[in-house]
# Entry
Amino acid sequence: MISESLLPWYDKHARDLPWRLSPRQRCANPERQFTDPYHVWLSEIMLQQTTVVTVKSYYLKFLDLWPTVHELAAEELDKVLSAWAGLGYYARARNLHRCAKMISEDFGGVFPNNEEDLLVLPGVGPYTAAAISAIAFDEPSTVVDGNVERVIARFYALKDPLPGVKGQMKACAAKQTPAQRSGDYAQAMMDLGATICTPRSPACVICPIQENCKGRKGGIAADLPKKAPKKIKPTRRTYAYVFKDNKGRVLLRRRPDKGLLGGMTEVPTSGWLEGQDPLLDPTLEVLAEWDSFQGIVKHTFTHFHFEIVVRSAEFSQDVSRLAKELGASWHSEDDFGALALPTVMKKILRHAKLST
Ligand code: SF4
# Structure
């Protein structure tokens, strides 16, 4: 079993992470044996699609603002979205808030301890449910993230490509999940993948499970897991319209709750057209004399690249009527920090010489 050599290694080498109660910390404080489920849930939602380095400061900021799930649940969604701005994948923040409300109002603030019940929570998929139940409750759940997939593919020398091989990986990972210290085992596998069994150059000579690793023995570890060829991402293009008034304020509006960047703050844009040049928005164009900034803003979302030409115009009259017509409101640069501005919108504002 992997756990026999991995857990002693983890006891010595576990990464210090702000959401983690490491074996060393538990030895120092025997009263605290498991991590608070709120902390595990919060960190795991943030870590979906985002690196540990980026998540650390956001996690600490959220705990500072909302130390308990009840406080997060009682907060306005816009404040949560604003604190989330920059982490990306904003549906996660909306689901985070919905989930906090459900835990606070329907579950009395207590997270369920098993995968089945955790899966009914908004934003909690199979991976997150397994991680919470293992790490916070020490249930023998099989936790398989990208790091664990890599370790398992190499340990068993699984040569079929992802994503087709995922089922086989999960079955192999389940066979290895120990009945005791399941939470530590899950975190140890993640740490092994992040620090030793790394994507490009696995450090097999210092690996605690090298003895039984088939990928190492076959000399193919660095080539695994294999991946099916990636689809080429399309490019969408648009014009962004930075309206300024004579006080230097900018017109911004809230995006619809559903869909990409739902509920976030945006600079008005024309349609986001795929595979062709952007088209000017006729309704916005007639409102002023516009100038385009040189160069384009580039951003990449999960499914497409995005290119934006930024246009700007200044208004001296009728600014309140204009805001009403566009469903928007005026904001000074000093306000930007408190708004739920996603990274792409910050890039647009910076391109228009505004500081965010
Ligand atoms: S021996 Fe090498 S390939 Fe195998 S699990 Fe360890 S680091 Fe990864």
User: Anything to note?
Assistant: The mean pLDDT is 93. Residues 151, 154-155, 196-197, 202-204, 207, 209-210, 213, 215-216, 221 surround iron/sulfur cluster (CB under 6 Å). The chain has two domains: 2-223, 235-351. The two ends are 51 Å apart (CA to CA).
